[in-house]
## 1
Amino acid sequence: MGHRCGAAQLADGNARLRYAAGRLHNAIEVTPPLDPAVRPTYYDRPYRVVEAGRFVRALREQISDERIRALPLIGAVDQFVDSTDAIGNRAVLRSAVAAELAGI
């Protein structure tokens, strides 16, 4: 019989993972240390988050090449391409990324 986990247990486990990720970020010393503590809410929702934008901002501040720093924050390709066919086609993915970067 499999182990069943409630929503509160999942939330606690996710919070521990997020905290651990923040500590790992600090351990590699690519930015000044950031507080890895999980925040109690996400806006008015009961989701505990690490507030990852703080880590993104700190990392971007470490980029010395202005051309790289000027690139938009677009995330992973699957955040703006919703097609399983495209995900398996490197040429399509490269074209989609190029279009996203160009603002097309």
## 2
Amino acid sequence: MPDARQQVSAAPADRPPTPDDPISGATGSPGCGQPVGDQSVPVAAPRDAEWVVYRRVVVPRSAHIGPGRTDADGFLHCFAQSPTGAVFAAYHAIAALEDGAKAVATARKLLLPGPDRDRMLREVELEADEPAAGESAQLAGFRIIDASRDRLSVALAMRVGDGYGSATLTLAWYDGDWRVVPPRPGEQFGAPFAQLDDLAGFVPWAGI
């Protein structure tokens, strides 16, 4: 899978939701037994988090938000069906892709099923077992681009050398958990990208 952490290109961003933008229809059933939780769009660092290392990347976890399950191969999943749960899932998605030896299994579990996932799985199979290049980029913050009850787009800031870069993920609620929406043909995983001088416009949130 193309490494979103190493891509950089500026792109205009949509208006981020405001603190008064609740997610409508927030009465759905929880995924994996996690409570649905607060449906407001996070505009500050979530408080209910502790930080752990997952596949070389420091990520948040919470008893009420997730991850709630660990597979035999170490894959972490099961997040609350809320905007904050989706942000937690996005952080974990970046970390999950760090282990090249488990890339195919990870992509199969992580990506939203469909033709675009099938195409990406074929690409991942060709790149499987490739070691991650250099040090792992550590997550530094997030900016919500768009959110609804079952879908969220987020820009994730990461430390890159002496500065920052960002990648963009869209997540969709599917079969009781958040899945990353794979790119369409001709698009790059994690695009649009940007080089950042600082975290202006992002919610700083990091465990390292």
